[in-house]
Amino acid sequence: MEKRKDIYDRLGVKKFINAAGTYTAIGGSRMSKKTLEDIADAAASHVEIRELQKNIHEKLAELTKNEGAYICNGAAAGLYLSIAACIASKEGKAFNYIPIAKIMEKEVVTFSAHRNPYDWSIKQLGAKIIQIGFPNIILPATAEDLENAITDNTVAVYYAAGSEDGWIPKGALSFEATVKVAKERNIPVIVDSAAQLPPVENLWNYTKQGADIAIFSGGKDLRGPQSSGLIVGRKKLIDIITKIGFPNYGIGRMLKVGREEIIGLFSAVEQFVNMDHEKRRNWCEDEIKRLQEAFNRSNLFKIDRTYPNEAGQPIPRAFVNIIDNNRLKAKKLQELLMEGEYGIYTNSEDRNGVYINPMTLQEGEMNIIIDRLKEIEG
Ligand SMILES: *Cc1c(COP(=O)(O)O)cnc(C)c1O
């Protein structure tokens, strides 16, 4: 049967099956049919954006069991807006009236182990990043280190959430200990939990445990629009974010969130909260088992189950070990997977094989992956 030609075929842009994970550079995740339908409806009519925001933000606060919620255009933008709100809160006036020189005095405390390229959101605002501890276990950061780093200029503590089994190195203070110190000093804790869904409970757990703000990417496992993000937390800070954010003039004006993103993310969060997460996890386990069974007699590939995944999420992955390294190297395997009838995009993380992440796969795609690996095996 002739395959339908879509816009990517017409453009000559290579498309592929994402067996790597919710990486933004390859489009993160795919929206559900229901979300896409809701977005089409959103685009078909005009509404008052502020009224839509108010309506949806209230519903999102309830859905995520938080005092407040705000939809921004990505977790990185969410961090930018949240730190701006912390600065405005500290100064006790609207962000637009705070001179740049004043912003530049402000400090955001974080752990060396939590530094990452997304903290440009803090630097771009003009605030300073005050770094404590080391990104390893030689001398782990202590509560005393955090207490000593807090000054009159401190506006927030930035905490990168995630498992040390994922990308975050050891060396930081625990979340609970961080919150305890920050609370004593009345400093808000901003949690970057962009990729920390699942588990779904993280939508409310960080804030329940004392964070003032938690930020999630809309385009990762939430499966909302790529250019969306969700900020949840204390009403006082969310109210300030709402004033700084789009469609108001000021720094939030360049972080536009259209009604398509607002509706799309709301629809996605509603589906995510109501999803049968256990069924989904079992589906992932079964897909990995199928892959293992397909190669249990192979003399080229050995399939291992690994857990948790690269972001520390409670979803297993499969690792396709190359047994015979004289026959095949990881980089070559990645190239061959991309070359088949359907391209298959994988990560190797510098190991002797490739990871297959079921998180971003749909029904039927594991079969295509198995068939292609068999072809490569020859
Ligand atoms: C993906 C990610 C972000 C950025 O999320 P966007 O929604 O793409 O802006 C920020 N922080 C961390 C830790 C991330 O993994």
Automatic annotation (TrEMBL):
What residues bear N6-(pyridoxal phosphate)lysine in this entry?
K220
| Pfam families in UniProt | SelA
Alphabetized, the UniProt keywords read: Pyridoxal phosphate, Transferase
What the entry lists under InterPro entries is as follows: PyrdxlP-dep_Trfase (IPR015424), PyrdxlP-dep_Trfase_major (IPR015421), SelA-like (IPR018319)
Is Transferase included in the keywords of this UniProt record?
yes
Query: What Gene Ontology terms describe what this protein does at the molecular function level?
Result: L-seryl-tRNA(Sec) selenium transferase activity
Cofactors (names): pyridoxal 5'-phosphate
Q: Which SUPFAM superfamilies match?
A: PLP-dependent transferases
The similarity annotation says: Belongs to the SelA family.
Q: Provide the protein name.
A: L-seryl-tRNA(Ser) seleniumtransferase
Organism of provenance: Maledivibacter halophilus
